[in-house]
Each structure stands twice: as structure tokens, then as C-alpha cells.
Amino acid sequence: MAAPRSRTLFHFTKNLNVLKNIIRRGFFPKYSLEDIAWFVAREIDAVAYPVVSFCDIPLSRITDHVSFYGQYGIGMRRMWGITNGFNPIVYVSETSDLATLMRQISQSCIAAHKADKKETHLDNYRRLVGFCKPLEGKMLVGGQLVSKIFYQESEWRHLATHEAIPNYLSKGEYHNPQILGPANESAAKHCPLKFTPQNVKYIFVRTEDDIPELVSFIHDELAHFPQRDLQTLIAKIVTQDLIANDI
Length: 247
Description:
By secondary structure, the protein is of the alpha+beta class. Helix content is 39%, strand content 26%. The protein has helices at 16-25, 63-69, 78-83, 97-116, 120-129, 171-174, 177-190, 211-221, 227-234, 240-246, and strands at 8-13, 30-35, 46-55, 72-77, 87-88, 90-92, 132-134, 136-141, 144-149, 155-159, 169-170, 200-205, 237-239. A hairpin with a 2-residue loop joins strand 8 (136-141) and strand 9.
């Protein structure tokens, strides 16, 4: 029987150049807009968090995830994620006791903020909410809202924090390119997630035609690592055809 969870954290993208950039520079948080109106105060309907997202879906069930997020990707050792503060998303039913408790805590934080004018109460609560998602909902993809069954994604999340970046953006700020662009740049500058070849378990490409280009890239851009490490990394390249047909 296949394991319900992988011991690998996967991150997928639609573009080979994006994958190359990850291999060369690491992962960089980007602000992601999320609907939170269903379990927090109704006057706050959405916020954007600086996140990097992964999943621990087993390779035997990864096809649907890949078709949505992209056929290029990388699989990281789970301990690397844990060491960097990753945590699985908590999926919350809107009618559950947990959702009710979170609404009550939200109201308490708002009341405390009104009483002492300190942002700490709301900031801590919003950060907690950043590790939660509804079972199902809408997400913004390419400027369009699409329906998604979130709990099937088995998401692990890194929520970036640094004194030089906003903990979150409002919906209005997120939709303002003059605010979003600099915020993403600042998050990338101050909160990069670096890794070494030893932290990598898989590199995914669409077809075998992508392999020679990626191999040349690894040799050129990662030449500061020992050749043995590079050869091991190259051996971890897997095509989506192989996953679909043999795993």
C-alpha cells in the first residue's frame, strides 16, 4: 500500500527557467492573496502572505497536482523544510469547533488592539491564520479566481518573517503593482531559502528533451560545488513521462 504522505517536499512550476533560477539561487517568498473572510472578522476578507509552498503528496498521486501547478519542479528533503521552519497547513472546516474558536480569538485580538493600540495582537493572529486554509475555496491563478479542494494538496508552508518586510499586505495593497512589486523584491532579498545539492531528492522536467539543457546549466552555474555533488544532483533528474508511466 502506498504511503499517504511522502517524506519529500515538492514544489512545482510551469517554466524551466523558473526551475533553473531555484536551483541557482534558492526559493524566494512571494505574497500570495488568500480569502480569510470565512473564519475571521468579516471586515477583513483577504490578506496576502509572503510564502513559499510545497506539498508532500506521494509521487504515485502527483499527476493532478502537476497538471495544475506545472511539470517542472524540485523535491526537497523534508528535514530541510523542518529545519527552515516549515509547517503543514491546518485545514479548517467552516462549521468546525476550531473555526468557531478562531473567530472568537479574532474578536478578542480586535478588542485588545482597540484597547491598547498595539499591533502585536492582530499581527500574531494574522500570522497564525497564515498557516490555515479552508477545506475548499477559491484561489487566484493568473488573475482569475478558481475553485480548489485545498485539503487534497497536503501543503507545507514557509511563512517569511523579517523586520524589513511587511508581515502581510491588504487586498488593496496586493492589487497595487507599485506596492506588490517592491514587497516581493524585499521578501526575496531578506528571506531567501538556500539549499545545497545534498538537500535535493528529485528534480522534475517535462520530457527528456529538457535534460541536456538542465545538465549544462548545473555544470555551469553550480561549479562552486564539488563535482561529485553535481553528478549526484544530475542523477536525480526525473521526467514527468517516467512518473506518469512507471510510478
